[in-house]
Recover the amino acids of this structure.
């Protein structure tokens, strides 16, 4: 069960629906009091926490969880995106921090990552998607047994896409996770598109099936089947 | 306020004056009395004290003059206070360009205070002006994508359509939304720079590392656009500032350079030390920027004429603000020439921390 603590009904209902469709059980709390009650009564797998709640600061939920010794992963979601607020949230024991406006694919990717870590699942070094084999240790890619030469950045890009195979990946996510450019005020779109087209040429250059799909307005999807 | 201060100053000084006069008379009387006693009553006491009466009369005559002088002095000394209060009141009333007139003030603490206040006023005035321009420009720029989103959505729901059409409409709206978020992000970044509290987070970093990182990010894009990217980073140049912002400045300059350089052209990117300080530069081989636009190009939402792509025009404004936050300037070094050369000039701090290179 994922607890979504968010006072804006539109944001919380889209989150609940999106997470539900991704296969998670979701419950929603709109106030600090509701959140505290839910934290006590139900067993939670993860908490998505908005800080600015009508009856107090969401950080109190986090403090309570940590005081009770609960290691439930907490992803803070807030419009306060200053570095100070971010550090403060992480200091209180949050596992991740996402500034509004966030993209839903990014939130979903982080939820998956946090749940994976919580379950102590190790990511295997070799990813297999259809006839594509990605060895993350050796940094080598094979398709139908043939090695594909990629630049370092192209490899990182592919590895990130493949790790999120079946889920959309936004340009924002790629900017942060592959290029490690923290500021969203730098326009990386064209750079990402150039790499993406090179990567596609190399992966799909032969008669191979399409693996990277473009989703208008969202970003990209790595999948064997068209969306 | 200053009026009451002046009255108080006058009253204190007047009390002092009167006390001094009374004390003087007392002392004088005692002296005259002892004189009369020691001189074995040659004159009557009254005769002897006559002089005291004379002095008293003289004092009483002089006292109003002294009072007038005291009033005049306290007024003169406190005049700047009144001027400061008047100016502050005017600024408070919305006349942001008013300043305290310090020309006729003597070079003293009061003048120093007035100058300090003027500097503070100037700081806030520029912040207010920037904020006003910001909100004006922003509201215009933000309305456009909102209008597009709204139209797309309204048209999409106006009659039944198949799933593919809805998906396309939502995709269009999301693309527009992304444009909007990017712009809002840039605007927020600009307003954060305006806040001007970043100096506390300055740390030394190596300029050539930042240059190489930017070059590395933009190299594939240049290659794709058929542009040669040359990188000339002098090693060992240490800058005090925020590395992420410096990178953003360079990225924005490179972004701009690529947009204005034709296929087959070249972009030179680098950092060097000069007599005045440190100089970062991005030099493209495009059409260049005319002298007329060399200034306005850094204004928010400005568009270089003949620009290939209609963008919000915030990148260079952001770069200029980042340059200013670091105590430097961003300029077009060669207005009117072929191939624009943008330079971020950073004056070398007086206590250039050369040892920091070793420390790092």
């Amino acid at each position: 069960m994922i607890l979504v603590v968010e006072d804006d009904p539109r944001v919380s209902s889209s989150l609940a629906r999106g997470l539900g469709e991704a296969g998670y059980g979701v419950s929603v709390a709109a106030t600090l009091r509701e959140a505290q009650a839910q934290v006590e009564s139900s067993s939670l797998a993860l908490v998505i926490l908005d800080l600015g709640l009508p009856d107090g600061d969401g950080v109190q939920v986090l403090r309570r969880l940590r005081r009770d010794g609960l290691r439930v992963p907490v992803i803070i979601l807030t419009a306060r995106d200053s570095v100070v607020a971010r550090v403060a949230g992480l200091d209180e024991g949050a596992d991740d921090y996402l500034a509004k406006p966030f993209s839903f694919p990014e939130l979903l990717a982080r939820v998956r990552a946090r749940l994976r870590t919580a379950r102590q699942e190790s990511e295997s070094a070799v990813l297999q998607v259809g006839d594509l084999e990605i060895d993350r240790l050796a940094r080598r890619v094979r398709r139908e047994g043939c090695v594909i030469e990629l630049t370092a950045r192209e490899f990182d890009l592919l590895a990130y896409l493949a790790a999120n195979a079946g889920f959309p990946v936004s340009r924002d996510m790629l900017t942060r996770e592959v290029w490690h450019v923290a500021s969203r005020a730098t326009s990386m779109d064209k750079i990402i598109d150039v790499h993406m087209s090179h990567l596609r040429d190399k992966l799909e250059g032969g008669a191979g099936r399409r693996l990277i799909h473009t989703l208008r307005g969202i970003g990209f999807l790595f999948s064997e089947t068209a969306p | 306020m200053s009026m009451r201060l002046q009255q108080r100053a006058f009253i204190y000084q007047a009390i002092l004056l009167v006390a001094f006069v009374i004390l003087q008379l007392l002392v004088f009387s005692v002296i005259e009395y002892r004189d009369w006693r020691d001189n074995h009553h040659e004159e009557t006491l009254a005769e002897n004290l006559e002089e005291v009466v004379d002095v008293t009369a003289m004092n009483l005559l002089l006292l109003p003059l002294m009072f007038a002088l005291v009033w005049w002095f306290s007024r003169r000394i406190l005049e700047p206070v009144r001027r400061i209060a008047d100016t502050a009141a005017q600024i408070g009333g919305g006349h942001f360009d008013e300043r305290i007139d310090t020309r006729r003030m003597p070079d003293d603490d009061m003048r120093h205070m007035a100058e300090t206040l003027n500097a503070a006023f100037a700081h806030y005035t520029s912040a207010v002006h920037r904020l006003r321009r910001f909100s004006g420009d922003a509201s215009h720029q933000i309305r456009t994508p909102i209008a597009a989103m709204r139209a797309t959505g309204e048209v999409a729901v106006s009659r039944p359509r198949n799933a593919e059409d809805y998906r396309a409409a939502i995709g269009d709206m999301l693309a527009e939304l992304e444009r909007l978020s990017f712009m809002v992000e840039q605007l927020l970044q600009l307003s954060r720079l305006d806040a001007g509290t970043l100096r506390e987070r300055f740390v030394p970093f190596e300029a050539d590392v930042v240059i190489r990182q930017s070059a590395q990010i933009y190299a594939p894009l240049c290659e794709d656009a058929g542009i040669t990217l040359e990188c000339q980073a002098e090693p060992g140049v240490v800058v005090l500032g925020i590395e992420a912002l410096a990178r953003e400045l360079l990225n924005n300059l490179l972004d701009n350079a690529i947009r204005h350089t034709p296929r087959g052209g070249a972009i030179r990117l680098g950092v060097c030390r000069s007599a005045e300080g440190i100089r970062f530069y991005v030099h493209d081989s495009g059409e260049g920027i005319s002298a007329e636009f060399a200034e306005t190009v850094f204004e928010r939402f400005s568009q270089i004429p003949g620009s290939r792509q209609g963008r919000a025009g915030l990148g260079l404004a952001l770069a200029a603000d980042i340059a200013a936050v670091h105590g430097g300037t961003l300029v077009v070094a060669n207005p009117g020439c072929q191939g624009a050369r943008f330079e971020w000039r950073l004056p070398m701090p007086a206590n250039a921390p050369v040892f920091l290179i070793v420390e790092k």
